[in-house]
Amino acid sequence: MKFRKVTAASATALVLALTATACGGDNGGDSNGGSGSGGGDKIKIGIKYDQPGLGLKEPDGSFSGFDVDVATYVAKELGYEPNQIEWVETKSADRENALARGDVKFIAATYSITDERKQKVDFAGPYLLAHQDLLVKADSDIKEGTDLNGKKLCSVTGSTSAQNVKNEIAPKAQLQTLGGYSECIAGLQSGALDAVTTDDAILAGFAAQDQYKGQFKLVGLKLSNENYGIGVKKGDTATVNKINDALEKMVSDGSWNKAVTENFGPANYKNEEAPKIGQIVQ
Fold first, then answer.
1. Rounded to whole angstroms, how far apart are CA atoms 168 and 166?
2. Which segments of 63-214 are extended strands (E)?
3. What is the pLDDT of residues 115-168, one digit of tens each?
4. Which stretch is the leader sequence (predicted)?
């Protein structure tokens, strides 16, 4: 009987151990980015859903754009295959909160590195240098930033672009902020708005879309330097370092140039050379 009792106890312990192991396997690799060793682990990455050429959710549910390509490359270097990526929409106004809450492992969403944002999140990169510009109708007489005084100007909630214009260039501009750039573009097309301002890379992506070809033009102003970085939760230095290594490799092996050509080439976007890691252009 003594032998039978020990066996029963051992069996119970074994069942408990297996149960605990199974539970650990389900959580296994931190849904926002664990070890990246496979076995069903996922990584959640924040992107935009409405920016052609950068971060766009296609009608078939797939994703395209330069930010998507950069994030996919980085995820691969972190140990995740494309089918292990869960893309999460992160609008401009919610990027810092998404990282603080742990909704995503990192964000690649036209995220300009600024001193204010660095108080809340850490950045890897930069991986692209863009410039703030204006998108107007093809027959518009807007040629300079000061021409926006008295005009209806649109950008998105949480973006730095509109305030740059309002505070420094055209204080009498009638500023409207909407939830997404696609809404601004629709207003521009209908005539309800006179101009949309944000980074030239974003504007070029919209202008190159089939339904808008020939309707809009970039004014060609370099109103600011926008150093796109990959946002990471504050204090996660290890992830920042790994992403920086991945970005350097992406440039050195030619993948960065390939992604630029594929995503911006159709709009004749004149991109800057790949920036050096940690080199912020003021």
1. 6
2. 63-64, 85-89, 106-112, 121-137, 152-156, 174-178, 195-199
3. 999 999 999 999 999 999 999 999 999 999 999 999 999 998 877 788 888 888
4. 1-22
